[in-house]
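Subject: for your reference before the review

Hello V.,

The reviewers asked for a structural picture of the protein, and I figured it would be easier to keep everything in one thread rather than splitting it across files. Below is the amino acid sequence we used in the manuscript, unchanged from the supplementary table.
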Amino acid sequence: MAKNSNEVDRYTERKAFDETKVGVKGLIDAKITEIPRIFHVPQDTLPGKKPSVSDLEIPTIDFANVYVDTASREAVVEKVRYAVENWGFFQVINHGVPLNVLEEIKDGTRRFHEEEDPEVKKSYYSLDFTTNKFAYSSNFDLYSSSPSVNWRDSISCYMAPDPPTPEELPETCRDAMIEYSKHVLSLGDLLFGLLSEALGLKSEILKSMDCLKSLLMICHYYPPCPQPDLTLGITKHSDNSFLTVLLQDNIGGLQILHQDSWVDVSPLPGALVVNIGDFLQLITNDKFISVEHRVLANTRGPRISVASFFSSHVRDNSTVYGPMKELVSEENPPKYRDTTLREYSEGYFKKGLDGTSHLSNFKI
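And here is what came back from the structure prediction:
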């Protein structure tokens, strides 16, 4: 079937942007005052079109006493259970990741995007971060059905189970990525234990299902935008992960969709944001919820965030996942069909961040 002229123009404009290999940062460096048409989001999805609520806050949970005694841990588990059943998101403080490690990964992200030699950056440029050890790109779903291109650049790397050698990472962010990933893997171990207990099961159950097996780290860079009301930093989406741990700087812009309203996830110094991904909603049979979220564009930036996705490796995992047998019954039958992470992820990446839920395709 022949493509219409709009589709041809859309492809041509995206390809031209892709071939520059300088991303959104390149547009800012060129001192543009109006953003290209490919970044314009449809009118009905503009930030002001859905009510936002400023007086609601996602739960904040203190992990300081998680190892003190059984009663203290159970109190934390109860808070985690409430957060993931009702919000799908929470912020965690006293999580064990040193403040200097948090600052260094943000600085490393900034260094790569702002100070790395342009030719070195271009040598890492690729839209395929599932096969490359380290990739730099602007919009992995540039050529998908997504109605608009997002206002951000990213670097990504699988840090587990097969981490890159130091030489495979750029010097500007190498040490920061390696050090931060060690701490996030340790925190992930604790989080999956608490989530297992929040299900009323043994603390090792989720880890035994390889939920902790793979870690994909994506470091986002959102340059200041001359027309932030016309575009988004990231379109509305849920994560194709078991669990996501997010570090954000103080700029703000992350919002979650809660009871049909957008709620700001206000930056909390030293905190990490934790959210449930699609896979965990699937295997818990909707007990835990994977919530849609987005990032607004801004004039204050650059905004920097580091998202760490716990999601078994799409390349070499043939495990079949479905609702956990411990959680289903005649009264609560399975709500999703079985799938592999490869099948789910390939469909998710092909579809792109188009504002629709991929999880809904797996409902029984």
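For the response letter, the relevant points are probably these. The chain has nine helices and 15 strands. The longest strand covers residues 153-160.

Happy to draft the paragraph if you're swamped.

O.
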